[in-house]
Amino acid sequence: MAVFCCICLIATTGFSSIPAKHGRAYYESRGEVIWDVPTDEKVIALTFDDGPNPKTTPKILDLLKKYDAKATFFVIGFRMDRFPDIVKREVAEGHEIANHTNDHVYFKRSVGQDTIDEQLRIANRKIKELAGQTSPWFRPPGGFYNDKVISAAKRHGQTVVLWSWNQDTRDWSSPGVRKIVDKVLRNAQNGNIVLLHDHVSGSRTQTVKALEIILPELKKRGYRMVTVSELMKYRRPAKANGHQDTAAAQPPSLPDYAFPSFK
Question: Does residue 197 have an active-site annotation?
Answer without folding.
Answer: yes
